[in-house]
Amino acid sequence: MGFDVSSSTIGWGLFNIDKKNNIKLLTSGFFKPAKNGNLFENLRALQEEINQLLKQHSPDQVSIEDIVQFLPRQSSANTIIKLAIYNRIVGLTVFNYLGKPPELCSVLAIRHGLKQTKDLPTKDQIPALVESLLKIKIPKQLKKTGSLKEEFYDQADGIACGLFYCYKLTNKLKNKSSNGH
């Protein structure tokens, strides 16, 4: 199971690896963490939501897209701190469920591991990339204006994180330059 974690949306994908190392996406989705209480109430609600997903799907391995520590002109200290808190709460919840830590995967490692050309895919290209690799269609989430909602990209990122980790577990990273750490 792979997760893309933020304080606004949690995207995820659940995979199966068969005895021949074939990888199949079983299901995926996203949810919005609670924002109606104080920070600690919201984090407890997030833990409950993650626990419910884990109990429902019973993964034996979990990967989480690790936090990006700096995005030029896009991140403030407050944004990074909030993202880190949510990311690590999900990680701790997974650790408590599995009895072992989740695999933390950097955004760059994921993109290097999944890329099909010499060029690194952008965030906007991840949905089409995972659809192509898995031969699936991710359900589109549209705004009233007809443009794609952010949740579509978050779900695709959760799928990408899980797929990258499946590639790592099955030695299918094709000699990419990044090892996931």
What spatial order of strands do you see in the largest sheet?
A: 3-2-1-4-5
**How is the CATH topology named?**
Nucleotidyltransferase, domain 5
Give the CATH superfamily.
Ribonuclease H-like superfamily/Ribonuclease H
Strand fraction: 5-15%
Which segments are poorly predicted (pLDDT under 50) over 5 or more consecutive residues? 176-181
Secondary structure: number of strands: 5
What is the ordering of alpha helices and beta strands? Answer: EEEHEHEHHH
- CATH architectural arrangement: 2-Layer Sandwich
Mean pLDDT: 91
Largest sheet: 5 strands, mixed
The N- to C-terminal Cα distance equals 18 Å
Shape: globular
CATH class: Alpha Beta
Helix/strand class: alpha/beta
Number of helices: 5
In short:
This protein has helices at residues 39-57, 77-98, 107-114, 126-134, 150-169; strands at residues 2-5, 10-17, 23-31, 63-65, 103-105.
Please, could you describe this protein's structure?
Helix content is 43%, strand content 15%. By secondary structure, the chain is an alpha/beta fold. The chain has a single domain, classed as Ribonuclease H-like superfamily/Ribonuclease H (Nucleotidyltransferase, domain 5). It has helices at 39-57, 77-98, 107-114, 126-134, 150-169; strands spanning 2-5, 10-17, 23-31, 63-65, 103-105. The longest helix has 22 residues, at 77-98. It has a five-stranded mixed sheet.
